[in-house]
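If it is no trouble, can you show me the amino acids of a protein and the tokens describing how it folds?
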Amino acid sequence: MSHAFQSYAPGYNATGLHMYDVTPDDGADLPHGGARAVRINTGGTLTFTSLLGNTETVDVYDGEVITCALKRIFATGTTAMGIRAYV
């Protein structure tokens, strides 16, 4: 399918071209090589590993968008729900 941005190479600061639901998983990285950002439907805590390899736990709020490139979202330590990834 062609689109308006197909001739552009996506960089780390580019907008997402696709979104998908995330099921937190302690043993598997996110598909598509990671996510540019995630949107949180219902707040809580989010435990993740960034693309640079740092693991963090942060408080997140309803509707918040975390604009950090993520590699994995852990089930352990994550209470936030309705997580959507941007790639």
Notes: The two ends are 17 Å apart (CA to CA). Residues 27 and 74 are 8 Å apart (CA to CA). The mean pLDDT is 88.
